Amino acid sequence: MAWFRRFYGESPLHLLALIACFALAGAALLALSPSPGAVTIAIWFVAAVIGHDLVLYPLYALADRPLVLARRARRRVSSRPVTVAATNHVRLPVLGSLLVGLVWFPTISGGGAEVLAFAAGLPPTIDYVMRWLLVTAVLFLASAVVYAVRLGRAAVRERTSGL
Amino acid sequence: MTSTTEPPATPQRTPYEPAYGFPRALWRGLARVPVPPPFSPRTWRSPLRGRWLTSVFGLVLLVGLPVVIVTGFLSWLAYGPQFGQAIPADVGYLRPPPLAWPTSPAWLYRLTQGLHVGLGLVLVPVILAKLWSVVPKLFAWPPVRSIAQLLERVSLLALVGGILFELVTGIMNIQYDYSFGFDFYTAHYWGAWVFVGGFVAHVVIKLPTMVRSLRRGGPGRWLHDGVEETEPEPADDEPGHSLVATSPSPPTMSRRTLLGAVAGGSALVGLLTIGTTVDALRPLALLSPRGRSYGTGPNDFQVNRTAFAAGIGPGVGDGWALVLRGGPAGGVRLDRAALAAMPQHTATLPIACVEGWSETRTWSGVRLRDLAARAGVPAPAAAVVASLERAGPFARATLQADQVLDPDSLLALRVGDDGGGPMADLSLDHGFPARVIVPALPGVHNTKWVGAIDFRDAQRSGAGPVRGGA
């Protein structure tokens, strides 16, 4: 089997698994093709990948840069040692807020509001943007409390070790 | 002693073997082309990326995603494919094994569909983290080094595209956002099969790597490190193909903080979701448009289709009479007074929707099997329940024999909360004058505004072949 690996690059099982994958995906596409909207579905499928890999990912990677750069700048500008790093106390609540904003985007953005009123009889009286901001505020508050506690504990540790 | 018989020490084996295949010259030539970011390996700086980290996320998904997949297909089965009412109806061989959906336990659909939606949402942070952990592979250079890698990368479209597509369509559907413009069920069903193909192949190919990586970096090794001690994992492949950064930045986060953050994200999503199905926690579902409480009265639970949307006017009860068909003596008409004069049965049953929310209520009305006997078909093979609603995909639903004959299957006239509080007539939005409620049946098949029930014997049951193309 060494010749196979040298030619193909992996074991025969690898090839079998992939052929099975393509066969199954192909069968599903074939079954889908007569349905109305099949082309739109395929476009959304590809758009989901592009949307994540080439839009969402670069955006959040770039958004993280200022935080990392600020952290580096702080350590260069001041010689005072950092007792408790603040970076993650900003990063994590932002991540939590973005996660909630992403998962409930249709509701927060009002994308489902019309159908909601029609199908569920719920008039658009609830301000979901406000609720999302409240969740965000709670996350930042919790993060700030943990940060304060850690700062306090570090100060106590410093004083006791200084004695 | 034995050292004399040992072969001369072999040169230190690299922990990885770059897997170049045919045509080698082409791949090696590509590898020598200098490339700009994001294809250059120096683009990726995080010291946390590596096989162990990816394997941790992989393990969680390996346990969680099969549950989401199986419960999804169970939901398709629960819609009654033998009557051609699973959506999509005609699926050929690409269907789960035939299984008669039971009526017991009554909370079965609440559990399976709650898991499908709830667990699917809870896994979102894990999926995003897993994709983050392997993103250098997307921009690997050379893009492939063998035919094997070429095929594998194509299959990742089924895997990654599949999971993202299923998430996007599912998340939009549970929030009433249909701006995608295609039929949700069709897209979600076939998308699932594409994903299953990609997922199974990925597990077969990567499982050994995952197990090896998890063994090599036991929890003591990578979880113990604080930020300052955090070091990159050892390189697992040549630069350009390794998950491990070739020129890592100083760590800003430890591995345990990252894993904790992902777990925290899952917990946050879970916290905001659980209120759609647990009564006591309903206020927590503050961003979910479904599974809400409308107030404290017997009828103040989630409406999924208003009378207005169904074209049912407030005068629907005037002169209303239920028509029972299928008996040897022809149709039987029962007005509300006649129904109220029949033996009334009370059952506490959940109503659980395909969108994941559920709610327990106490229902009271006439048993469906009593109605079948009244119609003259005491042992029906199926019953077709027709709503007064004219159009709409769920204006009629076929029930299988055990769903008609279950002692808790009702034509409900009244509803109350689950705690034995006062009961009231069904409100117009909840199906006044009468609605069906059957244990473990998907919500939309519990037909509202029932106008007629056609009890059918085996010959007329309409049950199609097992393949469900009826």
User: In what range is the share of β-strand residues of chain A?
Assistant: under 5%
Shape of chain B: elongated
Helix content of chain A: over 70%
| Structural class by helix and strand composition of chain A | mainly alpha
Given helix and strand content, the structural type of chain B is: alpha+beta
- By oligomeric state, this entry counts as heterodimer
Helix content of chain B: 25-40%
How much strand of chain B? 5-15%
Could you tell me the radius of gyration of chain B in angstroms?
29 Å
**Major interchain interface with per-chain residue totals:** A-B, 70 and 85 residues
Largest pleated sheet of chain B? 5 strands, mixed
What is the rounded distance between the termini of chain A? 70 Å
**Total beta strand runs of chain A:** 0
Question: Regions of chain A with pLDDT < 50 over 5+ consecutive residues?
Answer: none
Description:
The complex is a heterodimer of chains A (163) and B (470). Chain A is mostly helical and 163 residues long. Chain A has helices at residues 2-8, 12-32, 38-77, 87-103, 105-108, 113-120, 128-162. Chain A is flat, with a radius of gyration of 26 Å. The N and C termini of chain A lie far apart (70 Å). The model of chain A has no long low-confidence stretch (mean pLDDT 93). Chain B has 470 residues and is an alpha+beta fold. Chain B folds into two domains: 24-274, no CATH class; 307-460, Sulfite Oxidase, Chain A, domain 2, CATH 3.90.420. Chain B is 37% helix and 12% strand. Chain B has a five-stranded mixed β-sheet with strand order 2-1-10-5-6. In chain B, strands 3, 4, 7, 8 and 9 form a five-stranded antiparallel β-sheet that branches. In chain B, strand 7 and strand 8 form a beta hairpin. In chain B, helix 2 (51-78) packs antiparallel against helix 3 (108-122), helix 2 runs antiparallel to helix 6 (184-216) and helix 5 crosses helix 6 (184-216). Chain B is elongated. At the A-B interface, helix 1, helix 2, helix 3, helix 4 and helix 5 of A face helix 4, helix 5, helix 6 and helix 8 of B.
